[in-house]
């Protein structure tokens, strides 16, 4: 009898919560909108009061708000409405629907892009091919989703290695974003490149046609490929049923420079620096195995501290830095001192007290993420062997040290996503320059991190770091000539009021809010 009473009480409370959420959804935190939390009795609890299978399939969707501080940023009602509309579109046009089955016939041999005039009610698709490491994949996927929102396309993810399904929950209700295994040209997707006849840049050079258009938006893209970011080219692409995109970049800032998208983006995101913050939280709910890693580590090492500090350290091969960012090599030996100088100068961590303890202060948990353990060990030993000048008690922890990046290894990628997410749960964050790993953490967490200035010649830079202008990631390699080939105007030359050069690379651009920066 007592058990039955509790079941009835739980169901009644769930019903009341669902009514409250139903009438307040546009004004609530994005983690609590009506799609992210279906607090209806049939979704949340079964007939016996237990969690429903819907909840069990993605625990992070329902529990993540318990681990985050409430964001001071609120999504616009228009963004929430647009996401609801997209979910309806995806359900109507997703894999194996009548619309999908009809549209894939256009990929049969003999169909050409000039024959792809689409009717108003016909579905259009954006197939995204993953490229590069986990941070790049998440940033480029969020960018592709925004492009799909702007162009009324259905986003389908080519999950060639199974990592998307292993790492993330399905983001859209009652459908899937995964490209079906029997997709007609699936066997070609891994081999599409700049020389493919379907490549948009190649089609412009040679006036070609194809049954689909392939967008080559990775580090080797040329001026013809970059014409994707021009209005005139978007007019052509809007009539193509199947667009296939390979990208490694967060190319959102360049979408804001496309005139035809300008008003829509301004309405979706009145606060420009919240694009990835909202889209990332909407799309990237960790799968249950990853969520278990996150919650177990958080409860063990972070939950009981007064303040949580994240330090993300990534060092790169000098040849990569020279090729990608025209940056000469830095001195690894001075990296720990640079991190500590940054932390001291910005009151992230206290200095050590050589004269002994001054009493009890705050407890601070410092989580270090790095592929190596040496930086963590230096910081840990320093705070283990010395007290602090203000009495704060500092615990230093590192979840893993994998030795090297192993993209495609499921165990490695699960740890990487868990560490990105844990960094996003910290109160203050220090990150390495040029690292998309850090970019994702700052965006998910709504944090403006301190970005390290890497040392040269064993000398700690002055200043050792710079606080980010916004929580938005950097588009590290935007088009330099914009639409100059077509119009004679350099679209990125006048950066505008809400686009600035990135803090860690002068050739990159990022979104900012003028008042905040």
- Which value, in Å, is the CA radius of gyration? 24 Å
Low-confidence stretches: 1-49, 486-494
What shape does the CA trace take? globular
User: What do the pLDDT scores average to?
Assistant: 85
Structural class by sheet pairing and helices: alpha/beta
For the termini, the CA-CA separation is 60 Å
Task: Specify the biggest β-sheet.
Answer: 6 strands, mixed
Helix amount, in percent? 25-40%
Strand line-up across the major sheet? 9-7-5-10-11-12
Number of helices: 21
What do you see in this structure?
The structure is a single chain. The model is unreliable at 1-49 and 486-494 (pLDDT under 50). The radius of gyration is 24 Å and the shape is globular. Strand 3, helix 11 (231-237) and strand 4 form a beta-alpha-beta unit. The protein has a six-stranded mixed sheet with strand order 9-7-5-10-11-12, sandwiched between helices. The protein is α/β, with parallel strands linked by helices and 517 residues long. Helices cover 38% and strands 11% of the residues. Helix 7 crosses helix 14, helix 14 (275-283) packs across helix 20 (436-445) and helix 19 crosses helix 20. The protein contains 21 helices and 14 strands. The protein has helices at 2-24, 41-44, 53-56, 59-63, 77-93, 98-103, 134-151, 163-167, 186-189, 200-206, 231-237, 252-255, 262-268, 275-283, 288-302, 318-325, 335-345, 374-385, 410-424, 436-445, 484-487, and strands spanning 125-129, 154-157, 213-217, 242-247, 307-312, 352-353, 363-369, 387-388, 393-397, 428-431, 450-452, 465-467, 499-501, 509-511.
């Amino acid at each position: 009898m007592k058990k039955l009473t509790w079941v009835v009480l739980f169901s009644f409370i769930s019903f009341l919560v669902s009514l409250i959420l139903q009438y307040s959804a546009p004004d609530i935190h994005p983690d609590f909108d009506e799609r992210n939390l279906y607090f209806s009795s049939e979704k949340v609890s079964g007939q016996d009061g237990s969690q429903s299978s819907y909840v069990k399939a993605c625990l992070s969707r329902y529990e993540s708000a318990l681990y985050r501080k409430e964001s001071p940023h609120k999504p616009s009602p228009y963004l929430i409405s647009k996401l609801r509309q997209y979910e309806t579109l995806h359900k109507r046009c997703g894999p194996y629907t009548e619309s999908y089955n009809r549209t894939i016939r256009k990929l049969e041999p003999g169909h050409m892009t000039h024959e792809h005039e689409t009717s108003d009610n016909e579905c259009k698709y954006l197939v995204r091919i993953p490229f590069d490491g986990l941070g790049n994949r998440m940033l480029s996927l969020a960018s592709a989703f925004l492009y799909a929102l702007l162009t009324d396309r259905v986003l389908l993810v080519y999950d060639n290695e199974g990592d998307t399904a292993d790492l993330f929950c399905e983001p859209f209700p009652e459908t899937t974003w995964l490209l079906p295994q029997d997709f007609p040209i699936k066997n070609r997707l891994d081999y599409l490149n700049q020389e493919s006849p379907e490549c948009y840049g190649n089609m412009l050079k040679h006036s070609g046609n194809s049954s689909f258009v392939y967008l080559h938006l990775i580090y080797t893209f040329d001026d013809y490929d970059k014409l994707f970011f021009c209005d005139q080219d978007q007019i052509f692409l809007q009539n193509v049923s199947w667009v296939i995109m390979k990208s490694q970049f967060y190319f959102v800032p360049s979408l804001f420079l496309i005139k035809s998208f300008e008003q829509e983006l301004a309405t979706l995101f009145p606060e420009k620096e919240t694009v990835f913050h909202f889209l990332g939280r909407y799309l990237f709910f960790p799968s249950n195995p990853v969520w278990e890693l996150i919650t177990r580590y958080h409860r063990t090492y972070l939950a009981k501290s007064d303040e949580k500090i994240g330090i993300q350290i990534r060092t790169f091969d000098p040849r990569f830095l020279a090729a990608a960012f025209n940056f000469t090599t830095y001195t690894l030996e001075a990296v720990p001192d640079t991190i500590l100088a940054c932390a001291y100068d910005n009151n992230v961590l206290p200095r050590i007290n050589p004269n002994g303890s001054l009493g009890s202060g705050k407890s601070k948990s410092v989580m270090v993420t790095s592929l190596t353990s040496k930086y963590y060990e230096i910081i840990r030993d320093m705070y283990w062997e010395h007290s602090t000048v203000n009495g704060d008690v500092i615990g230093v922890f590192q979840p893993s040290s994998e030795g090297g990046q192993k993209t495609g290894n499921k165990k490695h990628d699960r740890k990487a996503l868990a560490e990105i997410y844990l960094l996003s749960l910290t109160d203050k964050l220090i990150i390495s320059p040029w690292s998309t790993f850090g970019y994702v953490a700052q965006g998910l967490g709504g944090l403006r991190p301190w970005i390290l200035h890497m040392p040269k010649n064993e000398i700690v830079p002055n200043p050792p770091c710079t606080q980010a202008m916004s929580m938005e990631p950097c588009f590290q390699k935007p088009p330099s000539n914009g639409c100059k080939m077509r119009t004679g105007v350099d679209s990125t030359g006048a950066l505008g009021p809400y686009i600035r050069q990135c803090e860690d690379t002068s050739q990159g651009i990022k979104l900012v809010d003028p008042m905040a920066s």
